[in-house]
Design a protein that fits this description.
The complex is a heterodimer of chains A (about 230) and B (about 210). Chain A has about 230 residues and is α+β, with helices and mostly antiparallel strands. Chain A is about 40% helix and about 25% strand. Chain A has one domain (about 45-225). A 7-stranded antiparallel sheet of chain A has the order 2-1-3-4-5-6-7. The longest helix of chain A is centred in the N-terminal third of the chain and has 45 residues, at about 15-60. The chains are: A alpha+beta (about 230), B mainly alpha (about 210).
């Protein structure tokens, strides 16, 4: 190694060079991230909308068209179009004759590991939940995710009765959780052996959400029925 | 900086690619990147996606680090490498969300955690910062393929035994009772242990033969 090399190696770092390299790389990286974000944003939004659309049609069997409604803080619902972020939305499903099939509602609550997000369909005609799907769950693969796949558990939501009390202000029976094999009433959710915590969490989310939303949705039925016209 | 000890090696060396596949496999030999190796290999699709995402970040960061190796002062090199790696991980994160939300959901936080995968920073520091762009590309490709291969080895075994399927298709009879443990964290350790045993056995046997 010659003398010039030694000088270079032992020379104190030039602050300008350090600043230049970090600043330069920072600008390039910032540009890269913004381009990637902008480039993928339409596709990501489309994927999210498709996933939600699919879920709405699944939890409201027989639906051919849907309309979105915003739930205002005073409990009134109104047709809604535009950016969904930050809004409290419900989705009304209509059959081929434009008759209201039901309303799909998103709900969430604490699961075994993290928050579970789900969507369920409420039929005002049957006064029952007629479908359900988990949108987001990080519960244990193979055990906790049985709440998404187990046919016996999913059968709970084919006709989960949530009738209103005569005054229309609350449910006649709140949804209850019972252990596997203990279901006696149509408003009970039968848990899964081996995924008790996750299935109980689903029942709690459903209980809380239906107690609030079913009376609210019933009050707004005319708005939903008029929504498709 | 042209007098860097490794700067003379400007010609492409295919050994830089091959070494990552077997001799210096990042998982089975170097035992690096254990977090994604154990956490996301409960299915083949997760293993492939994580392998490809890591390879993408590895290749792009190696290319950029190698291209800028003469202009990045050594005092700020680690901060700069982390910035480069984190940016490409963010790009990979958006791309996976755009390709499939289901896969994105199943990989969860592990995509963001590629930033701290020691294989990537290790290759940037140990190789790309001292070698030509071409050789750095070969090194990243080799390590990326080797990493993806290792994840696939784990994901394949775990999905078949834990779910009776491969890439979602049933490969075992309907009577097969899945071993749930294989898709739980414990199964990851068992499978990794078994693969490490096999790789070490093969390596020892090769050494023994070459000594004779």
């Amino acid at each position: 190694m010659n003398q010039i090399d030694l000088k270079k190696l032992t020379a104190p770092p030039n602050p300008w060079h350090m600043l230049r390299s970090m600043g330069g790389v920072g600008i390039v990286c910032a540009l890269l991230i913004v381009v990637a974000f902008q480039g993928t944003l339409p596709r990501i939004n489309q994927n999210k909308a498709e996933a939600l659309e699919k879920a709405v049609f699944q939890v409201l069997p027989g639906t051919k068209n849907r309309a979105t409604f915003r739930v205002n803080p005073d409990g009134a619902c109104e047709p809604f179009q535009g950016e969904a972020r930050g809004q409290r939305l419900v989705y009304a499903g209509f059959d081929e004759n434009n008759k209201l099939v039901g309303i799909a509602v998103e709900a969430q609550g604490q699961g075994f590991q993290d928050v579970i997000r789900l969507i369920y369909g409420y039929s005002p005609e049957k006064q029952a939940v007629i479908g359900y799907q988990v949108l987001e769950s990080k519960d244990t693969p193979g055990l906790g995710d049985k709440v998404e796949k187990d046919p016996h558990f999913l059968a709970n939501f084919d006709n989960l009765e949530v009738p209103l009390a005569p005054d229309g202000g609350a449910l006649q029976h709140a949804i209850e959780f019972v252990k596997s094999g203990g279901k006696q009433h149509p408003w009970q959710i039968e848990g899964i052996t081996g995924a008790t915590i996750s299935s109980r969490a689903i029942a709690n989310i459903m209980q809380k959400s239906t107690a609030e939303m079913v009376p609210l949705l019933t009050k707004n039925l005319e708005t939903f029925q008029a929504g498709q016209k | 900086m042209s007098n860097h000890p490794d700067a003379a090696a400007k010609t492409l060396d295919t050994n830089e690619f091959i070494k990552g596949l077997w001799k210096e496999n990042p998982v089975f030999i170097q035992v690096l990147g254990m977090c994604p190796t154990l956490a996301v290999t409960n299915s083949v699709i997760n293993a492939i996606t994580m392998g490809l995402a890591t390879s993408f970040v590895l290749i792009m960061s190696n290319l950029l680090v190698s291209s800028l190796r003469h202009v990045i002062p050594k005092q700020v090199r680690i901060a700069t490498y982390i910035l480069i790696i984190a940016s490409f991980v963010t790009v990979a994160d958006y791309v996976i969300q755009a390709v499939s939300l289901d896969v994105y959901k199943s990989l969860g936080a592990f995509i963001a955690l590629i930033v701290v995968n020691c294989i990537i920073l290790g290759r940037a520091e140990a190789f790309a910062s001292k070698n030509s762009v071409g050789n750095s590309l070969l090194d990243a490709l080799g390590m990326g393929v080797g990493f993806t291969f290792a994840l696939l080895c784990l994901g394949g075994v775990r999905e078949i035994m834990g779910n009776g399927t491969f890439l979602g298709y049933h490969v075992l009879s309907a009577h097969y009772q899945p071993w749930i443990i294989m898709i739980l964290p414990g199964g990851g350790f068992f499978t990794l242990g078994a693969w490490l045993l096999l790789f070490n056995y093969l390596r020892k046997r090769k050494e023994k033969i070459s000594m004779q």
